[in-house]
Design brief:
18% of the residues lie in helices and 36% in strands. It is built from eleven helices and 34 strands. The strands form eight sheets. Strands 1-7-4-9-2-12-13 form a seven-stranded mixed sheet. Strand 18 and strand 19 form a beta hairpin.
């Protein structure tokens, strides 16, 4: 078999490739479409690479769902690496707003191993829209990283087609380059620059291979594979290695939406794996909680708490929803602060919200339908100053990887009268944005109010984030159930859902979207192996012992 280190591989294109990768968003997409790749994109630090590999060694091994490329479904660790913010940003620039993760695999090449030139079976169709990410983890250099032929993704054929045309079982890099240049003189044979923590993004149809033949250490990388959800992904039938390739119709490989929705999907979309840790006892799935007013009010305390659900989700470590009833003249607690973020929605009656504004507690009158968002550590309480019971619903959440957000969503209040008049008209579906932006615990918190006319709605789709809905008026049919006013719907990320307005009156409802961060490696909190810490020829442990001896001598 020919190796990849043929004489005409261009290893001096580092500056050109890196400049393409560092271009603006528009030119990045243009360069990728033209060349078929982006190289040297920084994703992880070396410490994060070491941490990931340590976790692989110390955690129980898991098999992939359906096939060996399905670890994103069974392993939270693989899922969170694949949905790293920098990876998602670049992939969505290349594929668009709807992005599906369908393949994850660890690629280990021992010294002397060569991965022959090929086009991946699953993405060899010229009409597929796929992006693969080759992420270096250990012992990765330009000599051991991917080699490819630029623009080969536009030739409309796979490496196997060229082998058959030339009548050869194996074709060298030079032969492939000659064939490609005969059809497009601009094609180049390249060995791409890449070190541990950097990624190569390439079109799934691109001709590529790798060579660890002249190196003495085992190279480790991750292959992450994404597609537009309208692209059918099937498991290849490798029996006899036929060409054109054959595919199994069942099972459809499990895929996860990581951005947008899958309304046009022809694939099997499943929820993400449960997060590691988390304060919730169970992982929340899609659910409906009817809330029939009035609810019980405890006469001894003048305040009643009715939990609706609680658990962890694929986006936050703890999500809670409860409904409270407050007697006239009562306050459940003095103004207080807490790390959790909250959204409060008044269901019935009129509340007086007391919130911290410019360092002082100020009142806000909130009739039924009002909404208020309390950021992390924002002082607040609620009082019922009317002569009737007050009922309000709260969503409360936290995440283990809290971060200071840039331009975070401030304390935000919407009066119920404003919300009721905010989206009107005869359109079958209409929505009005209330607010959106990053928070301490979320990459984005989004809220809007929607109106569905009788018979209006939308077909089932999948979101990459969690969605909560509170029905204010009318009736909604979803998941085979009819939800009346005050009912709560929770759509878990990755689970299909659609809805219709049933009855003669329009349906009005509030929507909250919870877009989460992913940080399992940070949550685990284990030390990196001692071998990662060297100081003057000593391990960190030996260095500490040496320092203690010096202190004792003094």
């Amino acid at each position: 078999m020919s190796t990849l280190t043929d004489s005409r591989i261009d290893t001096g294109a580092v500056d050109r490739i890196r400049s393409d990768s560092a271009a603006t968003t528009e030119s990045v997409g243009s360069a990728f479409n033209r060349l078929g790749y982006l190289a040297g994109v920084p994703i992880l630090s070396r410490a994060e690479c070491a941490r990931f590999l340590h976790l692989l060694r110390t955690q129980p091994a898991v098999a992939g769902a359906d096939w060996d490329k399905g670890k994103h479904v069974t392993s939270r660790l693989f899922y969170e690496i694949a949905t790293h913010a920098r990876i998602v940003q670049h992939v969505s620039e290349l594929l668009g707003e709807n992005v599906m993760l369908w393949g994850t695999s660890l690629v280990v090449r021992k010294a002397g191993q060569v991965h022959a030139w090929h086009t991946d079976y699953e993405t060899s169709n010229p009409h597929h829209r796929c992006v693969s990410v080759w992420l270096g983890l250990k012992h990765v250099s330009q000599k051991s990283s991917l080699a490819l032929i630029s623009r080969s993704h536009l030739l409309g054929v796979a490496v196997k087609d060229v082998q058959l045309e030339l009548g050869k079982k194996h074709v060298s890099a030079d032969e492939l380059a000659d064939w490609a240049r005969a059809h497009d003189p601009r094609c180049e044979l390249l060995q791409l620059p890449c070190t541990a923590g950097e990624a190569i993004f390439f079109d799934g149809r691109l001709w590529h291979g790798s060579d660890n033949g002249n190196l003495l250490r085992t190279r480790v990388a991750l292959l992450l594979q994404f597609a537009a959800p309208s692209t059918p992904i099937r498991i290849p039938d490798f029996t006899g290695m036929p060409w054109p390739p054959r595919f199994h119709e069942h099972p459809l490989p499990a895929s996860i939406m990581i951005k947008g929705d899958s309304s046009e999907s022809v694939n099997r979309i499943v929820p993400p794996p449960a997060p590691l840790g988390g304060n919730g006892a169970t992982q929340l799935r899609t659910l409906i909680r009817p809330i029939n007013l009035p609810l019980e009010l405890k006469s001894d305390t003048g305040w009643s708490f009715h939990e609706q659900f609680r658990g962890m989700t694929s986006n936050v470590s703890d999500m809670e929803c409860h409904v409270s009833v407050l007697a006239p003249g009562k306050t459940p607690h003095p103004p207080h602060q807490h790390a959790e973020e909250e959204v409060l929605i008044v269901l019935n009656g009129e509340a007086t919200l007391r919130v911290d504004e410019s360092g002082t507690i100020q009142p806000k009158t909130a009739p039924a339908g009002s909404l208020i968002y309390y950021p992390c550590m924002h002082a607040h309480t609620i009082t019922n100053l009317t002569s009737s019971p007050l009922t309000y619903l709260m969503f409360k959440w936290t995440a283990d990887d809290a971060q200071t957000a840039k331009a975070p969503v401030p304390m935000t209040f919407f009066n119920g009268d404003t919300i009721r008049g905010s989206s009107t008209g005869e359109q079958s579906f209409k929505m009005k944005l209330l607010f959106e932006g990053p928070t301490t615990h979320l990459t984005k918190l989004h809220s809007h109010v929607s109106v569905l006319q009788p018979g209006g709605g939308y077909d089932a789709h999948v979101d990459a984030h969690d969605v909560a809905i509170v029905v204010l008026e009318g009736s909604i049919q979803t998941l085979g159930q009819t939800v009346q006013p005050h009912g709560v719907i929770y759509y878990a990320a990755g689970e299909a859902h659609g809805m219709r307005c049933v009855g003669d009156a329009p349906a009005r409802y509030l929507v909250l979207e919870f877009h989460g961060r992913h940080a399992s490696m940070k949550r685990v909190g284990h030390p990196i192996s001692r071998a990662a810490y060297k100081w003057g020829g000593y391990t960190l442990h030996r260095a500490k012992r040496f320092i203690k001896k010096l202190i004792k001598r003094k």
